[in-house]
Model the fold of this input.
Amino acid sequence: MPQKVRIALDAMGGDVGASVVVPGAAISLTRHPDTEFLLFGDSKLIEAELARHPALKAASRVIHTDVAVGMDDKPSQALRRGRKTSSMWLAIDAVKHGEADVAVSAGNTGALMAMARFNLRTLPGIDRPAIAAVWPTLRGDSVVLDLGASIGGDAHHLVALALMGSAMASVLFNIERPTVGLLNIGVEEMKGHEEIREAAELLRAMNLPQLNYVGFVEGDGIGKGLADVIVTEGFSGNIALKAAEGTARQMSELLRNAMSRTWLSRLGYLLARGAFQVLRNKMDPNKSNGGVLLGLKGLVVKSHGGISAEGFAYAVDVGYEMAHYDLLTKINQMLNRDGSALASAQTAQEAVS
Amino acid sequence: MPQKVRIALDAMGGDVGASVVVPGAAISLTRHPDTEFLLFGDSKLIEAELARHPALKAASRVIHTDVAVGMDDKPSQALRRGRKTSSMWLAIDAVKHGEADVAVSAGNTGALMAMARFNLRTLPGIDRPAIAAVWPTLRGDSVVLDLGASIGGDAHHLVALALMGSAMASVLFNIERPTVGLLNIGVEEMKGHEEIREAAELLRAMNLPQLNYVGFVEGDGIGKGLADVIVTEGFSGNIALKAAEGTARQMSELLRNAMSRTWLSRLGYLLARGAFQVLRNKMDPNKSNGGVLLGLKGLVVKSHGGISAEGFAYAVDVGYEMAHYDLLTKINQMLNRDGSALASAQTAQEAVS
Done:
């Protein structure tokens, strides 16, 4: 564990860049004063923002670059134009060269994933990285992955996701043996894609000391908190996440409209506003900000692009915690304990099929 | 359009059977007095319930059978044990033989789908049936399909879903040319599975007079009401539906807990209870009950298994509307207009690939 947590920030990432990234970092710094920042981007813009946040300024170093990856750049474009020069690349590069413990960017997901993969490379045994995030549930929080880093994948990929997600959950929630469920459209054994059924067999057969496979979980089981870690390939993970976010937003809007309908309901709202604040806090999408890129030889956190400073601060917090509790070492242990869990998955898979 | 709408009910379907099905039908009858019912199942149980609902009794005929499909029966088991004898089969059979306009069952989905497919057969050009349901959005209602009848599918399958979903939306919402979106994990053209991108090209190339293809829609676009019809294969459709249902339930529970925390919030709740009723009505999962099996030579509606009489009544309502507005003819027109839209999709697909 490093003395201080050193966070590299892509200060140009996101819909607005420095004017959210810098104040966001300032908020996170108040929560974790043992943080140092490397800020990559247009130094004039960054310094202007830092002037308003003296504590952050004292904990930061600014590294200037003119190049920024656009929010609509395709991954190939971003790599062509921004490799070795863009703020996003440089933030990742700082992690690669050990100058930072984690990089945080609100830049576009495809470009970030491509650059992180290209520059940091994947861990041994991992073909494709994943994005994992914390999902608030009725029972506490769960880790859900993959939220859209890659589409599809075989049983071996799903097992790798289960291992990495468990490492993240055990670091984040401080539990020894997180429960793991595979997202499926039914809980019966015969349900779902073949690769999901195969992954279930593998996880059961592997019977790992570091994760507790509990079976299939349906879409509504995520919010019930039926497992600490919910595993699925990136397409359905992304659909689940966005459908849930959409429903939460829809209900908030309906509630707001309903509460302002009559003077009686407006009065009721005033009296109960403490309760509404509790609800808002629990369902605050800002608090779920910060997707962790898993499977790389370095820590990278992705923030939503269209986010407030408060929201960006949560992504910085996630980066802080992942670095502070040394997620990378935990994942490596998970992948390699007992002579590589994934290799044993491979063997088990061959035995099964 | 028939004089009266004749609805065949699987009175044994669902977690509790007749004690929900019969009172549910009675509720629906008050909303649509021009309905006649055929009730299939254990006549003793059915008659006991009918005794409490004289108006329904007068509009019903009971057909006795001892055999009921279990909620946990596998489709193959259900077919083996319940073919030609079970209440579920007989209700579907009534549709096949023109004795009923639509069958409604709260029995298990796999069995219902297998029996309906086996007995009614699919429409020309349709390989695999789908389940569609109405999804409440901020802009009104949308039709979403497939919610889990089958997993995966090529571009041709997705186009067939788009056509059938549009037929349902145009019947249900009384619109000429419903807007149609393909569910995807991004709105950019390069995103998603190949078959989705191919289906997008096909729908654009076909430029049909009866549907207006508007592009990709992300998971949170469903609740925003970005299209009248949202098309996806059954796995991700089911995941999206359940994730949304789970989130709605989670928020309701959080809200309930929050509102009962202090005497002030409880008082606020009392004053605003009209507003909460409005919200509850809008998000009432009962009202979304009733999945329509599309692509068969007959109308079948699937109700949730664990539902109240009020909820089952909504599924009966859906059956009524589908039959009353003659969805089947509309779908057939959709599939065949201009010399079979699906054949032209096939040709377009060959041209594209």
Notes: The domain at 134-285+327-353 of chain A is CATH 3.40.718.10 (Isopropylmalate Dehydrogenase). Residues 66 and 155 of chain A are 43 Å apart (CA to CA).
